[in-house]
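Quick board copy: two proteins, each given as sequence then tokens.
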Amino acid sequence: MNTKYVFPEGFLWGGALAANQCEGAYREDGKGLSVADFLELGTVSSRVKDFKLTLKDGVYYPRHEAIDFYHHYKEDIKLFGEMGFKCLRISIAWTRIFPNGDDEEPNKKGIEFYKNVLTEMKKYKIEPILTISHFEMPSALVENYGGWENYELIHLFENYTRVLFTEFSDVKYWIVFNEINCAVNDIHGDWPICIHTGLKMDIGDNRFEKIYQAIHHQFVATAKTVQLCHKMLKGAQIGAMVAHIPSYPRTCDPEDIYNNFWRERYKELFFLDVPATGKYPYYFHKYMQQNNAIIDMKEDDLRLISENKIDFIAFSYYMSIAFSSYPEKYQEGSGNIFSGVKNPYLKASDWGWEIDPLGLRYSLNYLYDRYHLPLFIVENGFGADDDALQEEIDDQYRIDYFNSHFKEAYKAIEEDGVDLIGFCTWGPIDIISAGSGEMKKRYGFIYVDKDNNGQGTLQRRKKKSFYWYKDVIASNGGTLQ
């Protein structure tokens, strides 16, 4: 064993899943419809002009079955246990607990399912990290309330979280909203429904104002959730999460430096500034004025935000991007949620995501320096079209990706002094892609026999990376090369 990369004792190695991408069973045991249930194959979230909350005959909806974790969870968690997982991040489907979001009583079958999942995790000594809302709000809240623009959703969300804290009271780690900053991507578009906030848009609406009003309500809901968590669950920790994609100026042109600085603030850091510091940053109100936006903020809500700050910062990290004030001069780069221009110093995956291990170390230092709160990498992974015809699926490219990122995380801890709780790989088992509904964009250490058209046996197979990650965890990083 190479002791060079041994992580601190108690470091949480594991993986992360989202209910709408793995569970399936979309109408079983009283589950209601979520916005994710209406996403077709090939759609990027709900960013299509004709997106409606209507299920069409003859159309394939990948999330309706997904990989059927709902019926395979024992098998899957056993495999995670075999790998030695110390933690597993899952999300709760709001519609399994409250099918319409505003039901008077919670769905007992939904609560029972998650209790069974947590019991199975406990069997293998896997620490659960529960995400409360992960891109799957009840569609009834969009249709009947207009989504997070409506203040009433704060109360409905509080009712939902109170049930979770009551029923799953021994869970130590909680995350409120998955990648809360993704909402800003819906500002510059013309799609009629914004999946991240549940907003319904009409022609002529001030999209900017409506989205930031919804974001404010999510901040208030976050503060209420933090308050409730600290009151009901002694010793538990609760955090906020963003999609973290470090953005580098393409050149040293001051225009690139300055514009990239503000871009990072608006697209990400703002979404941590508020829940981490308990107040809106100085630039916020000027930014609203410049965009003709008037945000309704109640004094009691601002006080609530100030008094209930998060305990840790969770984030996803897959890549970095480069930014130019003159993007027409450069080749366009692909990205997860946010895109930029191509970085000539980095290689990319088959989906165009640029691979930047050192960017993870930079990010850990940057976020820890800014907030002085413990950090948790709750998503990181490599999507590839694995060759399932091999007797053993040789995904050395995935091993190489994780090997380099794990080492940079280690350096951030041991050489730089960053407080890092753990590292969750994204999609430890193949799941439906959030961005496109594909299966062939695979992230897992475990292969699931299913194709882009929903055909397959759902059989699980271990890839080469399965055994590699098992050794990494068993050695606490000591086998990293």
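And the next:
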Amino acid sequence: MSRTCTLHILHTNDIHSRFEQMAQISSCLKAKRAEWEQLGEHVLTVDIGDHIDRSRMNTEATWGRANVDILNHSGYQYVTIGNNEGLTLPKERLDALYQHAAFTVVVGNLLDGASERRPAWASPYAIHEWDGFRIAILGVTAAFSSFYRLLGWEVSDPLPLIKRQVQELRPQVDAIIVLSHLGYWADKQLAAEVEGIDVILGGHTHHLLEQGERVGSALIAQVGKFGDYVGHVKLLLDQGEHRILAKEARVMRVGEFAADPVVERLIEQERLAAEQVLSQPIATLSMDLAVDWQRETPFASLLAASLRRWTGAEIGMANSGLLLMPLRRGAVTRKDLLQCVPHAVKPCAITLSGEQLLAVLRRALQTETISTPLKGFGFRGKMMGWMGIDGVTVHYADRGKPDITQVYVSGQPLKAKRQYRVGTVDMFMFNHLFPEFHKGREQRFYLPEVLREVIAETIADDDLLHDSLRPRWIRS
């Protein structure tokens, strides 16, 4: 009669620097590991990416090192990267992120753009062995090719890579697990098209699969976002035949576990250090900048002017919902800007016809647009808000429903067929609030700077500040 053994896989994804959850996550991981190892069962602990989020102070002050310290102390063994690691950190920061990692970073579809080699901190796959069993662990991240290229990386389509790796490794191992920061729908495609994968541990789209989902022979598991849950995949293995007899998935509520005091102390130490780092003044502001999402403000106009200057465009546009807190006259710190503009949103520029520009302005003026809730694409706020503009003046009437009567660009009437260069924010290129941005020409994205770093360069410019007092939206 064959003997059986059990492998437990504990997994997290898309924690997004919710440090307030991490001490309880650590406690859950350590308690379950101790419980199962006492029974002679084997445990793997993995993270599927987007552990970091630069909207949080501990991450921003340390460029993610604080997150790696927590992963180390919590006992993670394997991780892959998400778009927050890969696209919100400058290349040199990502290259340095895992210098002191006590775990293996598995990401097969990322190469250095200059050398065309895999970065020193990444492994294309890992082979995990115990008690005569061999498990291949593969890792892939979402292939935002054009953005990675701007940062100096090359990222490839993960599906052909996984197919090759499974074909090569399947004869050598007893099971294959994929750490996939690709999203739920891509995971389903992967499971359907690649025979030989046993488990796909997913992330990116924040799906909560409480009992997992079976597609073909693969079990897909994902545990939502922000560290509310830890996932648990249990594999029953036949030791004689070296195969999986049964597999199941569940989730555990992190709130049911006491906080790990070691990790709690570490987080507090990092918070105090981060406060000190981010509280150094970086500029002196000569006037108060208030926040109001329902009407035009100098702050939103300044933001639009900053983007116009940064991108060298004729026109600047940015929604006031990006501004979450006012800035007061006097010293401005990195902490102030982080709290005010915490988003992973970046500058971009696009060419629109006068007709397309007018359509954007008309839609931006409508009450339902201003109040539209926004989420995703790096945005960390709540709603769209009034559209801040620069380089353009809009005259409009409001007789129940606002309507534009005249538009001037640099003092000249808008021409329907003329092409205008617009500096704005990248999230408009991905969401569907303004379809005209998707139809524009010559998109250019400016990386690695995020929006608050753009504002840091312009906020002390008194000419720009005082010009922001001038109304751009004129109601007749």
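Board note added afterward: The first helix runs from residue 19 to 38.
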